[in-house]
Design goal:
The chain is of the alpha/beta class. The protein is built from ten helices and twelve strands. The strands form three sheets. Strands 3, 4, 5, 6, 7, 10, 11 and 12 form an eight-stranded mixed beta sheet that branches. It has a two-stranded antiparallel sheet with strand order 1-2.
Length: 312
């Protein structure tokens, strides 16, 4: 059966007529001329193939067919209006949510202060944060699960638009009072004697470090191994272990932790904002992207470019 095509404006004309029982008043209600209003009703009757209006010299009423159509179409039009208005509110940043995938370390170190500023501009927009490893962050973006992500940059791909925002160096972290606090910097080749704990060998950070050390001919220094960053921070705070971490991660470590630069070689992870090349960010999502970009630039100037050891 062929689908009947009709315009929503024509349906709205019939609804106005059912309320006013007058072509003149209905036309005024829709802010159109009476002739334009009559054409709308006629177009709708032609589309359905039947009379929708019963006309008399004293009063205009709807036919049984017209009454049934108003009864069924009225709630649908109201729902359509609500849906379009809600879409508009989301587009303007007055409602809705943003799904962002983010490195766990960035979620610790940078997102809270950025989100505080974002809340001032878009108080009704909710954030759904997917904090994870760089590989999973990038996968979430590519699989349309997140509008954009903050990830470790790898090899370029045609499916991703990337803005490099920071270089995050790896440092050695330890509890205050450790013998390493007397040193200005630590060479990778000297690290094994301190028996550092590492993240699991499948983590992207670990793989990056291992590849760089093997390329430099340096034996891997790891002693213990943990699965999650939270476990590593717990061992650090207890003073049981020392650990290699990206410098950003240490903002989650607490004031009792100190760091020293790791050198020869210098190993950094490149961090960037990523989104699909075919994606068009919503107004609030673009604002959050811009805020994060600015925050990273400021952080890189004040922290990541600093050579001063943390905690001494």
């Amino acid at each position: 059966m062929a689908r009947i095509n009709c315009r929503t404006d024509d349906l709205r004309a019939l609804l106005a007529l059912s309320t006013t029982h007058s072509f003149v008043r209905a036309a005024e209600l829709l802010h159109i001329t009476q002739s334009a209003f009559s054409r709308r009703v006629a177009q709708l009757e032609a589309a359905v193939g039947g009379s929708l209006v019963e006309r008399s010299t004293r009063r205009v009423t709807l036919s049984p067919l017209g009454l049934d159509l108003v009864r069924e179409a009225g709630p649908l039009l109201s729902g359509l209006d609500d849906a379009v208005e809600e879409a508009g509110r989301r587009a303007r940043g007055e409602a809705g949510r943003i799904v962002v995938a983010c490195l766990t370390t960035v979620a610790y170190a940078l997102l809270p202060m950025v989100l505080a500023e974002f809340r001032k501009r878009y108080p009704q927009v909710r954030l759904q944060l997917r904090d994870d490893t760089g590989q999973r962050v990038t996968a979430s973006v590519l699989q349309h699960e997140a509008e954009f992500g903050i990830s470790v940059l790898g090899d370029p791909t045609a499916d991703l638009y990337v803005e490099h925002v920071a270089d995050d160096p790896y440092v050695i972290a330890f509890r205050t009072g450790h013998p390493l606090s007397c040193m200005r910097e630590v060479e990778w080749s000297d690290l094994a004697q301190w028996r550092p704990v590492s993240l699991r060998s499948t983590s992207a950070n670990r793989q990056q470090i291992d590849d760089a050390l093997m390329a430099a001919g340096i034996a891997l220094p790891w002693f213990d191994e943990v699965e999650h960053l939270s476990s590593m921070l717990g061992l650090l705070r207890s003073g049981i272990s020392i650990a290699v971490l990206p410098r950003l991660a240490l903002d989650a470590g607490g004031a009792e932790l100190q760091t020293r630069p790791l050198v020869q070689p210098d190993i950094v992870r490149r961090i960037g904002l990523v989104r699909r090349t075919d994606a068009h960010l919503s107004l609030p999502a673009q604002a959050l992207w811009d805020m994060l970009f600015t925050a990273f630039r400021e952080l890189e100037t004040t922290v990541l470019d600093s050579d001063t050891p943390r905690g001494g």
